[in-house]
Every structure is written in C-alpha cells, then in structure tokens.
Amino acid sequence: MVTEVVKIENLTKHFPIVGGILQKTIGYVYAVNDVTMSVREGETHGLVGESGSGKTTVGRIIVKLTNPTSGRIIFDGEDITRVKGEALRNYRRKVQMVFQDPYASMNPRMTVKSALLEVMKIHSMHKGSEYEYATKLMERVGMSEEHLYRYPHELSGGQRQRVVIARALSVEPKFIVLDEPTASLDVSVQAQVLDLLKELQKQYSYSYLLITHNLAIIKYISHRTTVMYRGVWVETAPTQELFKNPQHPYTIALMSAVPVPDPTLRREKIILKGEPPNPIEKVVACPFQDRCPYVMDVCREKMPPDTDLGSEHLVRCWLRA
Amino acid sequence: MKLYEYSIRRIFLLIFVLLGVTILTFYLSRIVLNPLGAYVTERTRPEAIPAIEKRLGLDKPFYIQYIIYLQDLVTFNWGWSRVAHMPVIEALFYRFPATVELAIASFIIIILVGVPLGIISALKNNSVVDHAIRIFSLTGISIPVFWLALTLQYSFSYLPKVAGLPSLPSNGRVDALLYQQYPVNRITGLMIFDSLIQGNFIIASDALLHLILPAMTLAFLSIGAVTRVARSSMLEVLRQDYISTARAYGLPERMVIYKYALKNAMIPVTTLSGLLFGGLLAGAIITESIFAFPGMGQLTVFAISSNDSYTIMAFTVLASFIYVLINLLVDIVYAKLDPRIKY
Amino acid sequence: MLLSVRDLIVEFYTYRGIVHALNGVSFDLDKGEVLGLAGETGSGKSVTAFSIQRLLPANAKIVSGKIVFDGVDLLELSEEKMREIRGQRIATIFQDPHTYLNPVFKIERQFLDVLKYNDPEIKALENKKEAERIAFEKAVEMLKKVKMPAPERVLKMYPHELSGGMKQRVLLAMAYSLTPDLIIADEATTALDVTIQAQVLEIMKELQKEKNLSVLLITHDLGVIAENCQKAAIMYAGRVVEIGDVKKVLISPKHPYTQGLLKALPRTDKEVELVGIPGTVPDLVNPPTGCAFNLRCPYAKEICRTKVPPYTLEEGSTVACYLYGGK
Amino acid sequence: MKSRQTRMFLMDLKFALTLLRKNKLVVSGFVMVLFFIFLALFGDFIVDPNIAKSVDYPNALKPPSWEHPFGTDDNGRDIVAMVVLAAKYDLAIALSVILASIGVGILVGSVSGYFGGIIDEVIMRITDIFLAFPGLVLAMAIATVLGRSFTNLMLALIIVWWSGYARIMRGQFISEREKPYVAAAKILSVPSWRIIFRHILPNAIYPMLVVLTMDMGGVILTAAGLSFIGLGPSPFEPEWGSLASRGAVYLFQAPWIIFFPGIMILFACLGFNLVGDGLRDVLDPRLRR
Questions:
Q1: Pairing relationship of beta strands A24-40 and A4-19 according to DSSP bridges
Q2: pTM of the predicted protein model
Q3: B249–C101: do the CB atoms touch at under 8 Å?
Q4: Which domain holds residue A236?
Q5: Which residues 71-110 of chain A have a CB within 8 Å of chain C?
Q6: Beta partners for A25?
Q7: Do C114 and B253 touch (CB under 8 A)?
Q8: Distance of alpha carbon B119 from alpha carbon A202, whole angstroms
Q9: D199 in contact with A at a CB cutoff of 8 Å?
Q10: CB proximity B9 to A under 8 Å
C-alpha cells in the first residue's frame, strides 16, 4: 500500500479583481479550477503546464502562502486547509518550497550562515550545535563550510540554488514543492541541481511536487505527472506511461511542440492555433475547446468527465470518455 | 476600470481627504488656538466673554462645533480678517488672481527652461555640459527662497537704481501712480489679462515688468527639480529595450529621441510639473511677501506677524483644497498619458 | 557569402573592470542559410547580435575585428549608412516582446513609422496622407502574413493590450516588412510558451523559405537549433568553439564543451542519464588564460592552460580544441 | 560573522569610494557637509558662545572689515561668530526632523505596506490628509498654533515630513513583500515582525538613503523659510534663517547681514544635495554588474 503524503481535493482558487468606483469585486481570475491530485511518499510528482495554467498557484496553496477558495489539502491524513498559528508552524516544518529564482528567494543582505541559523533558531532546533548542523547541510548539497560566509551575490546561480535547497532541508521536511527549480539556470548547471535533487530523494526519501513547464525535466525526474491547462488538470499518469501513450489532445500537442535536439529526427509537428483563453472567463466546459483540433459540440457545453484508462492513467477529454 | 470611473473614485476619496483636512484645521484653530483671540481684547469686559462664547458656539460639544465649523466653511463664512479689515473669504478671493498670475508666469519659465536643460543633460550624459547643468539644478534646490529673492531685489532693482541705471521694479504688481493714470477695470483680476483685453498696453507691460523678479525667484527654485526628473527619466528611457527596437528598425536617431523617447520621458515630468504648479498656486508665501506682491501669500505673512489666526487657518484650508484638486487633476492626466496604468 | 564575422573582440567597461565579452568571434553565413548560434548565459551570443547591428550600449567597445556584410565592412560605415542597413537589410527580432515595443504608442504608429522611413515605395511618396494610407495597408498585409487575427484592430491597440505571442508577431511583421536580406533572431522565442513558440517558429520558417532569407538564430535551446538550422555554432566565453553542419555538431560533437552540453541536456525523445559540466562559467573580467574551457574540461592538457587553441577542421566541423589537428 | 560583515562593508566602502573619487562634484559635496558638521560640533569652542547674547550698539551694522570679516549685525554682533554659532541649531533641526520623520515613516509605512487590507486603507487615508497640505503651509499653520520656539519649529516640521516617508516606505514594502525571499521566510515560519524588520526593512531602506540625504538640505531650507516669516526660534537661538530674517530689514543699509547666513544655508544644502546625488549613482545596482 502506497502512502500519500499530500493529497489535494477539488482545489479551486479564484483571485478577485477589484474595480469600479467603490472598489468592489467585479470579476475573478479563475486561476485554479477543481484540481485533485496526490503525491506519494518518496515520489516526485510533476505538474506541467504553460504560463497561466495555474501550476504555481497550486504549489503556493499547498505551502499555504495563499488560501484556496474551496477544496481541501490533506497532509499525512490530516486536513490542513485552514490551519493557523502553532499548527501551521508545525506543518511548515514538514513542508517546504524552493522557488524559481534563487537570487530573489534569498535576502540579499544576509549571509548563508545567518539565513540557515535563523531557521534553526526559530524552530529551536539543534540547540548548541547549530553551526555544525549548518555545515552538515552545506555538505549535503555539495558545498563547503567556507560558503557559509558568503552573501548571495558572491555565489553563482547553481550555488545559490543549492543554498536555497539546503535552507529548505534545514527544517527536515518530508515534502518539498519545487517551483521551476532550474528555470533560471544554464543547462550545464541545471543537470547538477537535478541530480542533487534525485540523490537527496534517494537518501532521505523526500517527496517532491515538481512544478515546471519543461517536459524534458519531467521526463528525467518525475515518477508521475499531471498536465494542467487553464487551471484545470487535463491528464495524469505515471510519467513513462504519459510519454508513451499521451491521450489528451493538449498533452499530445505539447509534447510535439517541444523542440528536440536531434536534427536527424523528422517529425510532423502539431501546431496549435490561437492562444490560451483569458483567465477571467469562468471555466464551464473543456478549457481547451478553442484550440483543440478535434473539438466537438459537447466540448463546448460540458466539462469532460474524469476517465480512468487503467494503470493510473486518467484523462479529461470527451474523445476518451 | 474606465478613466471616468477612476476619476469619480478619486473625487469620492477626495471628499474624505478634505474632511480630514478640515478636522485637522478645526483642531488647530479651535482647540489649540484660542478661538476667542480675534474677538477679545484687553478692553473686553470679562463678563461679556460668555456671551461671545455663546455667539461663536464655543459652549457646545466639540462635534457640534465641528459641524458648525463645516457649515461656516461651506457657506463661506470664514470669519473676520483683522489684517485685511474685511471678511477672510473676500480678502483671499480678492488676492487670489495675483497669486495665479505669478504662478502661471513662473510655471512657464520653469517648463521652458527646466525640461530642455534636463534633456540636454541626459543626451550629453557625463559631459562638461551635463555637470554644469547638474550643479545649476542642485544649486536651485539648495538656495533659500528669501535669500534669492532679496539678492535679486538688491542686484536688479536697488543697485542699478542707486547707480542711475534702468532697473526692474521689485515692489507690488504695478506702479501705483501709473495705475492711477491708466486705470484698469477688474474683470478676472489677472492684471495682465485684464489690461490687455482693455487695450491698456501701458499697464500690461508694467505689470509684466513687475512679474519678472518674483517669477524668476520662484522659477529658479523649481527648475532644478524639473531638470533632474527630466534628465533621469530620459536616461532611463534611453536604456529601455524599445529604444533598441526603434534603432534596430532603422528609425533616424532624431526621431528615436525626440518622438519615441521623449513621450515616455515626459510622463514623470508632467506629474512633477503638475505638483509644482499646485504648490505655486497654493501660495508663494515668502516670495510674495518680499516683493510686496499682493497675493494670498503676502496676506498670510501679514496675518502671522499680527497673530491673525482666522486668516492663517482660512489660507491653510484654501491652499490645501487647491493643492488637492491639482493633485487629482495630475493623477487623471497621468492615467490618460500612460496607457499601461492600472487604476 | 552574405555575412562574415572575423575575429570580433568586444569589451565592456564597467566599474568592476573590463568585461571581455567577445574574444575573437568568427563565423560565416551564406545567402539563404539558417545558422544557429548557441551558448549559455554570458557566452556572448547576444553581444554578437548587437555588434552586427552596431547597437551596443555606450560602455561597450568593438576593439577589433571585421563584420563584412554583402562585401561591406559594417564597422567602417557612417552612422547614417548603418541606419539604412539596419532599416532595410538587416532586421532583428529581440527576446522579450514585452519590453521591445514602446508602451505609450499604438502599434499602428510604431509600425507605420518603420515603414515610412524604410520602405522605398512609401518613402518616395510626396503626399503624406497617401503614404500613411499605403503604409497602413502594407502593415495589415504583413500582419496577415504572420497569421495575426484581426490585424486592423491590433494596429489600433497599445502593446500592453496584446499577449506575448501577439507582440512577438507584431515584431516579426515589422522585421519582415522591411524585406531584409538577413534576420537576426536573438532568443526570439525564449520568453514564449512552447505551443506559442512552435507557432512563431513555424511562421519564421515559412517566411525564410519564401524569400530565401539568411537567418542568424540565437538561442540557448539546442532543440530549436536542431529543428530550424542548417548550421550550428556553439559559443563559450566569448568565442565560437565549434561550428559546422547541424547534424555533425549535435550528433557527433567534437569540442568537449559541446559534448558536455549535450550530455547535460534532459530530453523528451529518449531516456538519458544526465552528466552536468563541473564548475561554472568563467568570470569574463578575469578570464582564464589559454582555452576558456580548460578549468571545466576533462581532457585539459598543459597547453590548454597557456595558449588559445586555433581552429582545426575535424570531420567537417570547425573546432577550437587541442584534441584535434595533430598537435 | 562580524569580520565577514566588516569585510563586506569595507568592500562596499571601497567600491563607493572609487565611484565617488571619479566624481569631483560629490567630493566637494562631502567637504561642504563635513565643514558644516565640524562647525556644528565645535562652533562653541571656536568662538565665544556668549557673543550670541551680547549687545554692542556702537559696533552695530558695521560693513566687512579685517576685524569683522563678514561685518556686524544690528546688535553689533560679529556675523562670522553668529554664523558659526548657528550651525549647531541647523544641524540639530535637520537631523532630528529627518530621523524622527523616517522613524514614524518606517513604522507607519511598514505596517501599512506589509499587512495591507483594512489597516493599510485606514493608515493611508490618514497619511493622505497630511499629504494634502503644501508642506510649508502646514508647517506654518502648526508653528503658528504652537508658538515660536526652537522645539516647536522642529515639531511642526516633523508633523509635515513623516507622511511623505510613510508613503514611500509603504510602496517599498509592497514591492518587497511580493519577492520570493519574503515568501521563503514565511514558509520557514519566520515571525512577521522579524520579516518586517530583519528581512524587508534593510532592503527597503537602502534606496531611501538618497532621499534622506537630500532632505537634510530640504529641512534646513524649510526651517530657514519659517524663521524668515517670523515663526522661528528666539534671537538667542540664532538659527541661520532667523539671522537672515533680521538682516532683511537692513537689506539696503547692511546687505552683509543677510548675505552670509544665506550663503551658509546654500552651501550646507548644496553639500547634502551633491552627496545625495552621488549616492544615487553608488546605489544604482546597474552600475555594480
């Protein structure tokens, strides 16, 4: 029996748009619409989608940087959707997040050491041996003691992201949300960081939610994958299965659109027409209807049902329903 | 949100601000100051004081007093000005056009000199010209008003007069004798405008001469600010990517700078100029008083020296109302100028 | 040969010191050819683009080298002549469509001005109104060519009312309306989503074929190069380290850096084990002596640390590495 | 850690100095400011402070001479001495007004900007009220009400000055609070007060240094202006503005009385403005790359 570390159920987030003379809510940005997914122990779950797909918002909701409009977040069997105060602090010792831009996610006026020690002090961990623990953390992410004395701008991009990872690990979490962890890094450094994440998972069996737009990274690192479009999940499957046998027209188009660095490979590309719909329109039917090459009447009327294709492969498309 | 909605919302908020302003001035004038001051002298019999208090509503609770205060404000019943020997409101409105005239004159100089200097400074970044303009504008914002005014008065009016050279007038709005000879009917109260439409060029030119020194004084203090903003925003814009686009697509350099960059760079300058104009309209207290220019500011300085609190407070309220209104206009113009603005 | 860059050296003067951004960049581009220029941050690919257009910022200086375009050295031209080249013969499409359109002018104004100053037909017209009208028609036509929906309406909009993909199409339309011989696409699709990137690349491909244009495609994405270019050049620390037929460079890379780059790349088409390149990109204020890659290279020898390797021809690719060429 | 920070500070300082060295204007600004501070600190030792309270009518209104290089005023006091003695009052006003205002500004702006919502709405509406007055006018009204004294002048200026800083600090906090480092701190359960003061404040205040430096000059100017229209301290607390104000009456007989205090104000303000202007370049992150 696999244990689910995090499970989100029917998660919805609508950001109000205020306007008008009285600054009342005149509409919503429908960022996340009814997303259900789970991350298992020791597993990496990839959440893939383009800008505006709502993937980052899902991550921010899970670490409780923002509250969902509706839906539930269950962590280790406990509903933590509305936790506050001490309970929230406890939750945040088990859940951490790594952001896209490592430079922006570090306080530019704090050394690595003071950043790490601050965390330990707040959670009263390793009293008396904070420094030793900080050194150990640095070694764990492939850096040395001397880097403790550096300011963020004295580190390279890859080193910064390692430090950010070390800081997330400092509270000894079970689960880490990785929001585009390598998007700001160069390819040669990205590989180092991805391998570090893999290695850490192997050793300490962390669970990851990997948010990215990069399918290649998903393929390399994640065990299961959910594809999002316009705040709706459209397909979810074990990664290998997804790449072998994509079912949703959007997933298929996305995979075909990714350029492959093999000039001998000649493929017919599926070029989608149009652009993602405006997020201020409420999603009532299939969000992909306007760009889908196979669109049918029913797609414009009703949300497609969750169709189970077996071997944990679920898709939301009227073609497969 | 549409522009008009934004404007209405801003006006709506303005009401709160103005209410706040009146609470503050009410507090200052009724609670901290002795409101009886204007009505009680040494010769007033002590037993008469309660009657005066009653007449002024001072025996009532504060909130009622405040409502009376507001009523008085709205009905322009602003009290008696001891220094002007007339109701405060009349004194202020009588003097307002002079202030407007001075404000317009100095504003024209500020824009005509400040903006070009800023742009030259930006285009010749780090050259000798740039440094010279930088010093000039920093000096402008470092100079005490009264000192500049008096120095100008001394060197362009007093010294030439003593030496028997032609000199600039440094007192009042117009030569009193000349004015008696060629009187002008008061229409708008803007002397140059009034005399021009009445074909009275003698007074028009004399009034213009009287404006030169005070307008130069006010202008010099603000040119620096305009120049600095124009310079830095022009430099900022020239660094932007869309300037590279214009160049990369073969537009001539003149057009890149004077059409594409300038419009962007002028947005912050417009905002600042608006605020400066608001400040000028709200009264150039020191300058007016030194050049005996009969605007609201001069009246206020008189009021200060004779402890005329009604006049001071009335001026404070009026000045802030004008200032707030101009600010509002500036914000609306800004929203209009920059299509990106989100309200 | 349409464009030939030779030993281009560019320096930036900053308060940190002199940044040696380009250290002898050389490559050729034939008529009708699409050359991909790839490299990581700081490799100098964008600086190369800006140098060709002579649009480097004021603190940069082209120290030496030649940029021969259609038989003329661009570095020798007067500013006015260069402006004509920029408007009429070389067009650039930049990376971030959000910042490369002027926010306070409508698309129409920006597009028509470009046409009025560069389109010979419109420039020749005496009647201003007429010129304006013809320019408008031409703009609409170009926007249709880049598959812009409702072009007339788009022209009346401000840039912020358009999505990134739409803005990039406006810039494409502007660039191609100048009927240039050479297009420089500087990370033109990097800021776009994959599905939008595919659309834009498709349009670029069509226009390139139609006019037999030469394209210098600058990107950090080797996938984009593989799918769109005939030739590929790999840059590292301000130098082209390997250049050749795209199949040769990407399938059997010669330079250790190119090899490392390909091994570090996660891909969707096959299962791979990633191997990162150890270390980081050198600081170009104090670049290492010899081959700039020597600190990260698994094959580094003594000579690599002292002398800059010359170019040698190895199985059809030109490589700057001491592993090849006998010595 | 300390040594590291010191080293970092020294590096910053070295960088700043190399930048400043290239700019002769800034250096001259520094000299002016240092001279001003020197006069303020040691003025009482350089000249006899009793001169301020002395009266010497036979020597009144004497033009500049070897004995009195700047001349004498209407009480026969030596202007050089008066100008030197006045420096400390001006520095005291400038420093206390700026420090108190930025203190209030930080408090109000940080709470408003960080928490947002209703708190922000209420605080900003109140701030708006203070911003609705032209600065000099409000200061004038308050100074009139409070009565003429050195402390009241300072108080009036603080009441006028804090609101601008509150608004700027709020803006800074709003832009900083959206940055990932703040989100990261939240996720690590760093308490709000610590995020505000330890994380955001140092980043938010840095760009303010330019404004604060230049406003030192602004406060001196405004104080002098208020003194000039008769709202300044008593003649026995000889601030430059009030010295000049006495001179205005004798402009045509004894222009030196107003000339020299005015020049002092000009140079002190110019000094601060030059330094602030230079600081803007030093703090510009674009130049660091």
A1: antiparallel
A2: 0.88
A3: no
A4: 4-316
A5: none
A6: A18
A7: no
A8: 61
A9: yes
A10: yes
Residue A23 sits at the chain B interface (C-beta within 8 Å): yes
CATH classification of the domain holding A244: 3.40.50.300
Q: Would you state the structure tokens that stand for residue C74, as one six-digit string?
A: 């661009």
Cβ atoms of residues C13 and C202 within 8 Å = no
Residue with tokens 């006006």: B11
**Residue D131: is its pLDDT beyond 80?**
yes
Check whether domain B86-337 has CATH 1.20.1250.20, yes or no: no
Burial class (CB in 10 A: 0-12, 13-18, 19+), B186: exposed
Q: B-chain residues within 8 Å CB-CB of D255?
A: 154
The domain of D225 spans: 23-288
Q: Which residue of B has its CA nearest to D245?
A: B146
Question: In Å, what is the CA distance from A31 to each residue of A47, A63, A76, A194, B72?
Answer: 15, 17, 26, 28, 53
DSSP type of residue D57: G
A-to-C residue pairs, Cβ atoms closer than 8 angstroms: 127
The reply to whether C250 touches chain A by the CB within 8 Å rule is yes
Tell me which residue has tokens 């009518």. Answer: D57
Radius of gyration of chain B (CA): 24
Answer yes or no: do C195 and A195 touch at CB < 8 A.
Answer: no
Closest-CA residue to C235 (of C222, C248, C223, C251): C222
Residue among A173, B142, B221, B37 at smallest CA distance from D263: B142
Per residue in A265-298, pLDDT (tens digit) is: 877 888 888 888 888 888 888 999 989 999 989 9
Distance from the C252 Cα atom to the nearest Cα atom in chain A, whole angstroms: 11
In chain B, where the domains are located: 3-81, 86-337
Count: domains in chain A? 1
From 3.40.50.2000, 1.20.1250.10, 2.60.200.30, 3.40.50.300, which CATH number describes the C3-89+180-324 domain? 3.40.50.300
Q: Is A23 exposed, middle or buried (CB count within 10 Å of its CB: 0-12, 13-18, 19+)?
A: middle
Structure token digits, residue B222? 């603000």
User: Distance (Å, rounded) from C-alpha B66 to C-alpha B72?
Assistant: 10
Q: Which of A105, A121, A123, A153 to mutate to test the interface with D (most CBs of D within 10 A)?
A: A105
Residue from the list C101, C110, C118 with its beta carbon closest to the beta carbon of B250: C118
A20 interfacial to chain B (CB closer than 8 Å): yes
B316 and D140 in contact by Cβ < 8 A? yes
* Helix (H) and strand (E) counts in chain D: 12, 0
Interface test with A, best of B9, B10, B16, B342 (most A CBs within 10 A): B9
pLDDT digits (tens, 9 = 90+) for B107-129: 999 999 999 999 999 999 888 89
Provide ipTM, 2 decimals: 0.86
Chains that touch D (3 or more CB pairs under 8 A): A, B, C
CATH of the domain at D170: 1.10.3720.10
Asked if residue D7 is part of any domain, the answer here is no
- Report which residue type is found at A124: S
CB-CB neighbours of C157 under 10 Å: 16
Q: State the Cα–Cα distance between residues A272 and A268, nearest whole angstrom.
A: 13
Q: What's the domain count of chain D?
A: 1
pLDDT digits (tens, 9 = 90+) for C49-69: 999 999 998 889 999 999 999
Burial B96-127 (b: 16+ CB within 10 A, else e): bbbbbbbbbbbbebbbebbbebbbbbbbeeee
